[in-house]
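Example 9 (inverse folding). The structure is encoded as follows.
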């Protein structure tokens, strides 16, 4: 049980470091090529739109958490003499 918990913690830490160091990963649909073949013709990848890279899921979650945190901790506007 302890070994499994440590392995899970190590995997989570590895993924967090990977998301921090390399936030973009190759697109899974086109395998980082930017194009897929449909009906024998090369087409633009519908997921990455020829960008070849996509933001990792963990980085997307971190960015959403960061936006929420910043929105919730903005300083309240202070009253000045002119606004009273």
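The amino acid assigned to each position is listed next.
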């Amino acid at each position: 049980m302890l070994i499994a918990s440590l392995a899970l913690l190590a995997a989570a830490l590895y993924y967090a470091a990977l998301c921090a160091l390399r936030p973009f990963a190759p697109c899974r649909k086109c395998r980082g090529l930017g194009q897929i073949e449909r009906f024998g013709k090369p087409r633009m990848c519908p997921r990455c739109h020829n960008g070849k890279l996509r933001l990792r899921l963990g980085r997307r979650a971190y960015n959403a958490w960061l936006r929420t945190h910043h929105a919730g901790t903005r300083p309240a506007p202070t009253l000045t003499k002119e606004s009273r």
